[in-house]
Design a protein that fits this description.
Oligomer: single chain
Number of strands: 7
Low-confidence stretches: none
Order of helices and strands: HEEEEHHEHHHEHHHHE
Strand content: 5-15%
Structural class: alpha+beta
Number of helices: 10
Length: 225
């Protein structure tokens, strides 16, 4: 049904448009199924880690962008690096929507995304345009600099000579394919309370991030009928 299709597309978009949507991100889903008498909204927005405080960045605050969308810190810690991450909700939202309103098995819905991650996607003009937008005038970090920030980002999105991949180049992500396979086989609990949750928490702890196993385990989808 339409829910199966929407969730399959969401997983695939997380592979082919990774800066816009992924299992590390967040969102919401309005579901209208008149024949079943269903009209509801699932909210799976990112949550601030439990150890975050209202004052933690007060001494680094320098303003906000003209559109009011981004608060600016002098060291950009809320834009790049481990401190910038909120507790992700997409995977919990996707799988709850599928379980409650879909008809297909998770492994079948995720299969196209897994194949795409392994085979790679061709960089499209708009994706490259987004990567190269100059946001420094607004005081923000450029997306290209975010991609270059980590070893993984440099490996995936750049050529060996350090230049950013261009339209027509291919981006394959076998590590993401493996992660998606683990989720398809075990379900979302592996990400929120199981082995992947442990790996996320360990990486956060090693790199100064705030997300812990408790943050992941306590995450819940909110519903607004």
């Amino acid at each position: 049904n339409a829910i199966d299709a929407a969730i399959a597309c969401a997983f695939s978009q997380g592979v082919v448009d990774p800066q816009m949507c992924s299992i590390g991100g967040f969102g919401a889903m309005q579901i209208c199924m008149p024949k079943r008498g269903v009209h509801t909204v699932l909210e799976f927005f990112a949550r601030a880690p439990l150890s975050a405080t209202a004052e933690m960045w007060a001494d680094r605050f320098v303003g906000q962008t003209r559109d009011g969308f981004v608060f600016l810190l002098e060291d950009h810690a809320n834009e790049i690096g481990h401190l910038a991450a909120g507790t992700p909700g997409n995977l919990k939202g996707y799988t709850e929507a599928l379980a409650r309103f879909g008809t297909m098995e998770l492994k079948d819905v995720m299969a196209p995304a897994i194949a795409q991650a392994r085979e790679g996607f061709i960089v499209r003009p708009y994706v490259h345009y987004y990567w190269t937008i100059d946001q420094r005038g607004a005081g923000q970090i450029n997306t290209e600099d975010k991609l270059r920030h980590s070893e993984t980002g440099r490996t995936l999105y750049f050529h060996a000579d350090g230049t950013l991949k261009r339209p027509g180049d291919r981006v394959a992500n076998p590590d993401l394919a493996q992660t998606l396979e683990r989720i398809a086989a075990a379900g979302p609990d592996i990400f929120y309370t199981g082995e992947i949750a442990q790996e996320i928490a360990a990486d956060m702890a090693a790199n100064g991030g705030l997300i812990t196993q408790r943050d992941l385990a306590d995450y819940r989808v909110r519903e607004k009928a």
